[in-house]
Amino acid sequence: MSRAAIGVDLGGSHVMAALVEDTGEIHAKFERDIEDRTPNAVVGALADVVKSAIGATKHDVVGIGIGSPGNIDPASGTIRYSPNFGWQNVTLGARVRDVFPKYEVFVGNDARCATLGEYVHGVGQGTQDFVLLTLGTGIGGGIVANGVLALGHQMGAGEIGHHTIRPDGGFICGCGKIGCFEAQASGTGLLRHAFRIAPSFPRSGLLDPQPAKGPDDERAWRDRLGSKKIRKAAQAGDGHALAAWNAFCDDLALGLSNVIAFVNPEIIALGGGVSSAGDFLLDRVKPLVEVRTTMVPRGTTRIVRATLGNDAGAVGAATAAMRGGLIAQLPPAVPA
């Protein structure tokens, strides 16, 4: 019987636990919404879905891996800082070990876990240099260089969404900087592009009813509208949506060309909700990346859609639990 672990994808609004075999196959999955973000409430919700996943299997579960937003001490599983939850120095690993003393518990950054999952069991298989970017409300991801997942001196490597691409006149990022890649080229960025250029399309019904001038009104409008509506309107030929889409794609291409210059990957995989646009996104972005690629041979980095979708984080967290950490490539077996 193959080995298996419980992989947990912990988000700001929900938690999902899955039983994952060492082949990457998911056999059971349980989810629960998170309304109370206090540590006790989050650990309670997490424990509930993990118990359900353990109870649904006859496999020998070797451990529990948790992908959580924030900067994390992998040795202890302490969340040093998580803006998603407003946490500082929360001992998530120790709290989960108290509930499940029978199991080894690993806690890692959710985006790095997703990168591990996509690299080991998704579109990154067989490569040495690989980047995953998840385009959702923000931009997450990670970097594999020469077969090693980059973690950094203080576990902060891979925060690609927070390099600056539009320092003059860019959108204000949630991190406080102006013009971050995430602020410009996430799903939220697409909405903000549509909002910014709305005065040039006074007859457009795309944003109807338009919000009043103010951050609270804009936030409520973004929540109502959703980036999917912009994308679908652009695919249907709406002028306002197309202009927003083109501005978004230009910023996405700028950030991707920087990634190529930084780490020269063989593959950049795009995941997250915005990537569901498929060829409508890739056909626009790839030529824009090519013209900005200068220091490596053009056309040698493939930009593709990720294949694991929303399961990448749980698969990667379970893989980390089975491997004893965020290990991209196992060392070769020593001959007996």
Question: Describe it for me?
Answer:
The chain has 336 residues and is α/β, with parallel strands linked by helices. The chain has 2 domains: 4-116 and 311-323, ATPase, nucleotide binding domain (Nucleotidyltransferase, domain 5), CATH 3.30.420; 123-307, ATPase, nucleotide binding domain (Nucleotidyltransferase, domain 5, 2-Layer Sandwich). It is built from 10 helices and 13 strands. The strands form 3 sheets. The protein has a 5-stranded mixed sheet with strand order 3-2-1-4-8. A 5-stranded mixed sheet has the order 11-10-9-12-13, sandwiched between helices. Strand 5 and strand 6 form a beta hairpin. The radius of gyration is 20 Å and the shape is globular. It starts with a strand and ends in a 13-residue tail after the last helix. The model has no long low-confidence stretch (mean pLDDT 92).
Task: Name the helicity range.
Answer: 25-40%
Report the span from N to C terminus.
22 Å
Radius of gyration: 20 Å
- Which class of secondary structure composition applies to the elements? alpha/beta
Overall structural domain count: 2
What's the mean pLDDT score? 92
Number of helices: 10
CATH class annotation of the largest domain: Alpha Beta
The main pleated sheet reads as:
5 strands, mixed
Percent of sequence in beta strands? 15-25%
Shape: globular
Number of strands: 13
Q: Unreliable runs, pLDDT <50, ≥5 residues?
A: none
> What is the name of the CATH topology of the largest domain?
Nucleotidyltransferase, domain 5
Note the run of SSEs as H and E. Answer: EEEHEEEEHEHEEEHHHHHEHEH
CATH architecture label name of the largest domain:
2-Layer Sandwich
